[in-house]
Design goal:
Layout: H1 2-20, H2 27-34, H3 38-42, H4 48-66, H5 80-96, H6 98-110, H7 115-142, H8 151-171, H9 176-194
Helix pairs in contact: 1-2, 1-4, 1-6, 5-9, 6-7, 7-8, 8-9
Amino acid sequence: MAKDTKERILVAALDLFSQNGYTGTNIRELTASLGLVKSGIYKHFDKKEDIWNALLDEMIAYYDEHFGSPEHLPPVPDSWEGLVTMTMQMVNFTVHDERVVKTRKLLSIEQFRDDRARALATKHFLTGLTEMFTPIFAGMMDRGLVRRDDPTMLAFAYTTPISALIHQCDREPEKTEEILAKVEAFSRYFVRTCAI
């Protein structure tokens, strides 16, 4: 039961923090959204900052498990079509998974206030994607699918526009399907320009 309450607190905190930011959310609002009293939250967390850090820890683990990370790489595709398919699976996950969308919004809001949020935003929006795709492009070079080049620069050139389009989905969710089509078109364009 205690674990369920703790999990409910983190889910509610993600909802409120992603809408109002950390500073725009107070414990009273959080407890009200859960139907608890303050002491119900303080049984699990000493202060609001502890909720914040537990939430970030949980989201890092969730993202790494379900999306991948430089430490948990997806397999190197056997073909260019495999790269497009893998990319679209990853993008579909990141724009449709409610927890990931809320986390991305939360990091976008809080990156200017909190050092940890800033580091996570940089990792998840830019550097982590480049780090994840660098060995993928290196592996595709080893398989003779990509001309020899700097795999880090290829990964950066590939992932940065896709990341920007994902953020457009957050700002304009009504255009998600159109944006996903643009991601796939970009992926196929990249394939045409880089294939051997």
